[in-house]
Amino acid sequence: MRQVLLAVAFAVVSSPACAASVDAGRYQSVLGDCEGCHGKNLAGGVELMTPFGKLVAPNITSDKQTGIGNYTAENFRRAMKDGVGPGGKRLYPAMPYPAYAKMSDADIADLWAYFKTVKPVRHAVDVNQLRFPFNLRFMMRGWNMLFFRPALYAADKAKSAAWNRGAYIATGPAHCGTCHTPKGFFGADKGLALSGASLQGWFAPDLTGDPTTGLGGWSAAEVAEYLKTGRNAHSIASGPMGEVIEHSTSRMNGADLRSLAVYLKDLPASPGNGGGASGVEAQMKSGAGIYRMNCAACHSLDGRGDNILFPPLAGNALVRQTSAETLARVVLAGSKAVATRETPTGPGMPSFAWKLNDAQVANLLTYIRNHWGNRAPAVSADAVKKIRTSLRSASH
Amino acid sequence: MARLLPKRDAVIIGLGWTGSILAQQLTEAGLNVVAIERGPWRDTATDFNIAYMQDELRYAIRKELFLKPSVEAMTMRNNISQAAMPMRDYGSFLPGDGVGGAGVHWNGKTWRFWSSDFSIRSHLVQRYGAAKLKGLQLQDWGVTWNEIEHSFDQFEYLCGISGKAGNLKGQVQPGGNPFESPRTREYPNPPIKTGYAPTLFADKVRELGYHPFPQPSANLSQAYVNPLGVRMGQCTYCGFCERFACGNYSKASAQTTILPVLMKKPNFELRTECEVLKVNLTPDGKMARSVTYIDAKGVEYEQPGDIVVICAYALMNVRLMLLSQIGTQYDPVTGKGAVGRNYCYQTGSGARMFFEGKHFNPFIGAGSMGQTMDDFNGDAFDHGSLDFLGGGGISCDPSNGRPISYRPTAPGSPRWGAGWKKATIEGYNSSMGFSAQGSSYPVRENFLDLDPTYTDRYGRPLLRITFDFPDNDIRMSHFMSDQLERIAKPFGAKVTTVSRVRKGWNAVPYQSTHNTGGAIMGSDPGTSAVNKYLQSWDVPNVFVVGASAFAHNAGMNPTGTVGALAYWAAEAITSKYIKSPGKLVPA
Questions:
Q1: How high is the mean pLDDT of chain A?
Q2: Does residue A134 carry a pLDDT above 90?
Q3: ipTM exceeds 0.95, yes or no
Q4: Which of A16, A124, B129, B365 would suit a FRET pair with A351, their CA atoms being 20 to 30 Å apart?
Q5: Residue B401 maps to which CATH number?
């Protein structure tokens, strides 16, 4: 018991000089989800599988040998905003400097004040494990010339302060587009911002106003609730978004979450998913049977789920994405929902890979994407097979 | 030589129901807690996969989630004139194993023992005179109903128990159990749905003037968020409760009610696959200083702690106390010594009826989807002219119609071949049963101690169970069987069979995992191992929590009372002990 009291006492007395800036910087690291890639202690090691090979997030603690303890404020600012490390070393845009370039210098300075207080951890990381020629850092010079248009966030005077704050967070520190915006051949943004994209075996869904695939069916309050708690009446977060919520959005303040919701709810609609499947009666019939046997106990026969633990499938935009990649992955590999302070349970979806073959999964997904009023393209057994194979190789 | 680890405020042995409750409450109070669990980590999402949880062969027959005798066996005998022999397989009862313990694979029947149970001796002596208790070692529990009622309430709200109050602050409620002791508020959820058999049973016994009511159930009637913010789902009546874990978050367990919150706490640590060998005492034997455990790699550790809470299964709690020399071994010859005293069990009998033209659909089931009448339970009825004390709840609670084990056949049916197959097809859907779960009262001869011959894989003596059904309980149970026969008559079944308990407890066929006593609570250190706060009389920084503390066993499932005792002990530690460590009750 004495130990408990001592611990409390220590917490009270330690108070660095520039506490306000450090606290503001800590919050910037929440907005930027630094822990998401660099790890809870920021010592790096999280692997990012890119189409070009593997990148490992570096150690960004204040350790002088293996971290960024030797950085100056200017080194740090340039790494964040220009993608250039000390000595002109080019960073890869897996470090989302194209988004961070929108951040104000004041926010970057706060973040640096915080990073200087991060406990040094000696942990050497082999960052660049990309395939040749992508492992040649100088190539990023060309990439930057082609695709990198650094610019501070420019406020839209026609929009509200909340909208602008939301836009700043979404396009700047929170770098939503890194996952949710479609990418071209060279990994640069291409196409309608935040209209959904595939990465690391998941499909980051459409966040535009489209009512079928986007956030059109969610109220702004529901968007904020989802970002805060990991769930709302429509969906429960798992996978990479679960991690983002755990490390970042659940720790954002209420005003910022509301601002993000205002901005996202104002995004123009994407073209949607191209409409429902047709001529798939056999798939639908088979899928209905599979659903009844395997899914209905939790998600219920009427597809409305149980809004506390099991997400509804009827009317769920995630079910109707253009790509069924996430759905197939979740059915095959299972998934565990994020657990937050407000919703600590973190319910799990079990794996059905051992039980359902590719055709059965395809039929099931075609069914749930085209029943209870849902409309989305059919899913083929071949598509499921590809995902099954990639999951198998990822786990080996 | 064991590796010495940094000291913690509290060391909890076992992370089942009681260990989880203690860990939650102690960490809430700011203590730095480590729990040491012999079995594996288990969680709903990863280990109770809804897609294969309903595998009867794997879980019910091969008993995947249960304690293996190779890990810990026990010896048994009926009386001290016999040499106890080791149980080579668990049969009569099935202890749990791993995180969540037996709370993972229980049925979910969540009773409160009655006011008259906690003060059983005083109550019975007052009503019938002391002579009536002759031969029974019945004792008051040291805690009264009014003191502990709120602890029941805490456990029920944690679990989201689905039921109907029968007595709200002294007011009898229609539809509930009129014999229950007063509760301060209604159950957190309404009763779960019930099937045809329990509905028929309730109608028939109501016509006979009895008082049927829905069993309080930890299989939830509706979605629920408990006071910790943890969410549970609605029971789907899949019929795979007992012996199975719940795959869809609708049966209360440590996993579905506490662990999501507990596991995230910075002042809590869990070490699984670590078996505690003993609690180490100071040289004078007056305080516990640490526990010694061995991990999955065979490395031995010593974990010091200011408080040690023993939260294993009831039988293992007693064994660990004996192995650690906490308290004095009970001696059935002299009646002296407290540890091992008042071991009790359960005295069950059942009726089965075979009908023509009825379809019970037994595959629709849940662990606690039944109707019960308590008109013959405990002391709800006058024992003045009867030759026994105690009683039992009579319940119709079809939990399952699983294909391997549920094969009721009418008496006289062939035991194998085509005739047997035909009989099982007929019996499956056209029969129903109901049963009496009888009390088990303590006698001098039934007790627990360490076996003098057999040891476990670490060379420690096994626990020895010396138990037979006492004459009082046999007479009680035959009375209950008579009631079952009488109640069955108006059903108009083609054939009815009623079982009767016989002397000579047999450890092989499954009977009940309601092993109680051995480290009982009470107000006299001469006749109880722990005081009313479940604190060891002898080693005051050791608390022993579980059904081991029951001074007798009532005609009810024990988990509700186990959960209440866990909250009760946790409250004593957090509100009394940590403010002023020492004996909470002067000895």
A1: 90
A2: no
A3: no
A4: B365
A5: 3.50.50.60
What pairs with residue B564 in β-bridges?
none
- pLDDT per position as a tens digit, B113-149: 999 999 999 999 999 999 999 999 999 999 999 999 9
Mutation pick from B225, B248, B251 vs chain A, by most beta carbons of A within 10 Å, is B248
Cβ neighbours of residue A19 closer than 8 Å, sequence gap 6 or more: none
Does residue B583 sit within a domain? no
**According to the CATH classification, is domain A281-395 in 1.10.760.10?**
yes
* Cβ atoms of residues B159 and B217 within 8 Å: no
Q: Kindly state whether A12 is in contact with chain B, defined as any CB-CB distance less than 8 angstroms.
A: no
Is B104 within the bounds of a domain? yes
pLDDT tens per residue across span B155-207: 999 999 999 999 999 999 999 999 999 999 999 999 999 999 999 999 999 99
> HSE of B287 in the Cβ direction (CA atoms, 13 Å)?
10
Task: Please list every residue in chain A whose beta carbon sits closer than 8 Å to the beta carbon of residue B223.
Answer: 306-309
Mean pLDDT across A214-242: 96
User: Does the beta-carbon distance from A4 to B234 stay under 8 Å?
Assistant: no
Chain B residues near residue A350 by CB distance under 8 angstroms:
45, 49-51, 247
3-state secondary structure of A393: helix
> Which tokens is B528 given?
């109880």
The total of structural domains in chain B comes to 1
Which sequence spans correspond to the domains of chain A?
Answer: 16-147, 161-265, 281-395
**What letter does residue B55 receive in the DSSP assignment?**
-
Q: How far is CA B329 from the centre of its chain?
A: 23
In angstroms, the separation between the Cα of residue A217 and the nearest Cα of chain B is: 24
Q: What is the rounded CA–CA span in Å between residue A223 and residue A176?
A: 14
3-state secondary structure at position B547:
helix
A310 and A295 in contact (C-beta within 8 Å)?
Answer: no
User: Measured between alpha carbons, how far apart are the two ends of chain A, in Å?
Assistant: 46
Average pLDDT, chain B: 97
Contact across the interface for B44 and A347, Cβ inside 8 Å: yes
Q: What is the predicted pLDDT for the residue at B59?
A: 96
pTM of the model: 0.92
